[in-house]
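Re: [help] complex structure
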Amino acid sequence: MTIRRLLARVLAVARKRAHDHELENEIAAHLEMAERDARESGMTAGEARRAARQRFGGIEQMKEEHRDRRGVAWLENLARDFLHGLNLLLRDPGYTAMVTGVLALGIGANVAMFSLVDALLLKPLPFADPDRIVRIWESPRPGATNSSSTLDFLDWKRMSQSLEAIAAESPVSVALTGTGDPVRLTGKAVTADYFRIFPAAAAIGRTFAPGEDEPGAAPVVVLSHSTWRTHFDSDPGILNRKAMLDGEPYRIAGVTPVDFAGGDEVQFWKPLIFTAGMRTRDFHWLSVHGRIRKGATLVEAQEELRAIHASLQSLSPAWKRDWKIVMEPLEQVLVGDGQRRSMLVSFGAVVLVLLIACANVANLVLAKGAARRNEIAIRMALGASAGRLIAQSLAESLGLVLLGGLAGLSTGWVVIRAAVPYLPASMGYQSAPAFDGRVFAFAAAVALGVSVLIGMLPFLQTLFAKSGRTGALSGKQGLGVRGASGANLGVRRAIVITEVALSLMLISGALLLFRTLFNLEGLETGIRIENVVTASIDLPPQSYPAPARAAAFYESLMERVRAIPDVEAAGLSTFLPLRWIGNGEGLLAPGLASAINVRFKRVDPGYFSTMGIPLRGGRGFTDRDHAAAPGVVVINDALAAHLGEAAGWTNVLGQSARLTTPRYTDRKGDLREVEIVGVIRSERTAGPGRPDPLVVYVPLAQAPSPGVELLVRARPGAATVLPAVRAALRQVDPLLPLGKTMTMEEVRDTNLSGVRRPAWLIGVFAGVAALLASVGLFGVLSQVVFLRRREIGIRMALGARPRQVVSGVLRSAMAMVAYGLGLGLAGAAALSSVMKNLIFGVSALDPAGLAAACGAMAFIGLAAGSLPALRAARVDPVTTLREE
Amino acid sequence: MDIPYGTLDLLILKSLETMGRLNGYALARRIEQVAGESVQLSQGAVYPALIRLQQEGWIRAELGVSETNRQVKFYSLTAAGRKQLRIEVANWEKGAALVARFLQGSAR
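Output below.
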């Protein structure tokens, strides 16, 4: 068939009525002319009419053939069945509303979840050829990754052939002045190749040119689109202005496009210029990204870099000779395994919800289908093909699913809109969850699948029902109903059992995650976090060129902060508590075979007491540990234990060691003699299950840092102390803005969000699932009672007591629940290996949780069964017996 | 005999080529006349064939007035239809020649 004809036939379906009318007219005209000719040849009127009809042939057959020839029969049928289905839906608005609601929940949850998963896991990174972008780390031991040193980075840059671009970056924070109040901007110092790896077509101006990262180059800056908008009023003439960063004028090279990835958190980029002091191999501070040359593979690039690293190993300090180099695709780095797993578990949960929703809808459709079984049976008896009946059933359910799909899309949209502000920015989205063509396609696919699933049911039920044809055709309505209590109810029971099983799996999974959450909240963080706010402070090197200036600044700031009436305690630290501690340093001690790599944290004397970190031995820092005093350190008990083992010390207190200590501004370290004066209990720096890192604490006064975190504990019940802290800062340095502020609860929560997210999501889904399961249970039990009303009537007429009737109905309900629970327990056991990685402090087959989940489902079953049971007991025997 | 399967299209196209515009009745009569007494045609059979040819774009239908003063469709060949007719005639002659040769060969 030519395409033209196909098109014409499809169009003909739409014009069916007009075509039929035309044909009627043609036939009439034809017969008229034939009659006239016949009469002219001498026949009587009656003879002529008969002759004309006879010559014409079978009119109805011809019409049928005409219709078949011109149109597409199945399309016509589909359209008719679809309209018929819509008509049925309109006639029963209660049923329609119920099904639409259930589908809206199921499809909506899936659509919302899909758009999250899509944004997080499926969509490629929004850069050209994202699969060629890699992250490069130094690695002290297998599985651990470390930042890179300047000289190592420069070696890779110089020698690598398989990378077409390689760039280093380091976070920077500056005070922007001259645009109103001073504000703190966080950004990145990047080498000039950065924008070759992450290409950005500048919205205004340009990005960096080669050579702008050379020493002596004029200071330039690239602004993010949002910085340009917020702090420069979207000035189109921005290129003619200068930005005052830390009191120094920067020429503005350009503005990134509005959708440049990562633009939200990075407010500006400036060239990273390596000063002589930064060119070392023992200070690790650079994040390095590369772009693999076209034609080279990841493996080739990895091998080449490994070879480069091996050839230069002799230049490395002795303590990092056995370090390796690691190159990973960026995508893998952005979305960690844990996150991937938690997203997939959440997605699995919504799929369960969808299945339960389908089961419920199937139940409703079956209840409805019971009424139509006679129609189906008659049509089969009259010779309708199975295919035709399935097609009809599908077309009818299509209307239902279209409604449900639309409702689901709207629900999903609302959910996403509501949820997006609460999604942590740290989730590493490649792009914001959006409602785009991919989500629509997904919704359509889900709706179609659901439609097939529930559309097949009434037909299958009739096809396989033993009493199907004969029962329906025997003509007695009563027989039909009684027949329905066989196969029909069997299917519906199976559905309810499945529903109970799926709900149990969801509820027990949710309970596990909630218990994990609970365990984590109650987890000994090792610190007091109540009423503590944190704020970052960065001293611009121009105004604070020497460490002594910084030390003086910290001293006078803390004096003022501690004087604020509502402040109970205050401290300073170079890293937030509960957060990863950067900067590995080497620690050498007598008795140690080689230097050990330790985390290095500078704190002031108030830090330990502010955070309530208990001393295990020795002392903390005091004001007497100033720059001129002998070097002292406090270590955590993880390091104490390690030293005890490695160096054979029985008591670490009073031992002396040598420690590489970073200088104030440049990136060189000095080896300094220090005495271990105290041991504190290890602070948590990561989620549960990770070993505590080895940490050395150094007095801030003995190793000042230009950037610190201020920690302020307010008195219980006090209003926020931040305004007073800001005022104190202004008194010390009016040009210095306060950086990012957070409460310690927020700090903790961002660390735990990996668990919290699926816990809440799955909890909500479990609630929805339990609701759907109870609705389904209730529906089936009501139906059972309705179908058994005759039997119950007879029993009661024969003397059965209402209580016996009630217990009978309840028993059948609980039997279904029990089967469902058994299946659900098996399912939960099957899923335990998936859950194992997401939970903490609770077994994947937690008996208490499973018992609680079973109890909840049993209660729901009991509740759903009671109402129909009581109704059964109220059945008046006379009425039901008279019904037939 | 009945009209051989698949030849009705050819007969219709050829009739329209010869006669120009025809309505359904006149077309059926024309085929009957040319065929003489040799074929039995249910006149109604032309209508399903006509709609098919029309959908293929080989003939076009215009409304006209019949001898009985009624609005009916008049059919005529399109350019594509003329081309199709040539193809079908060629096919038919080829097929007929093949069958003829075959029959002669078997008769020998």
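The radius of gyration of chain A is 38 Å.
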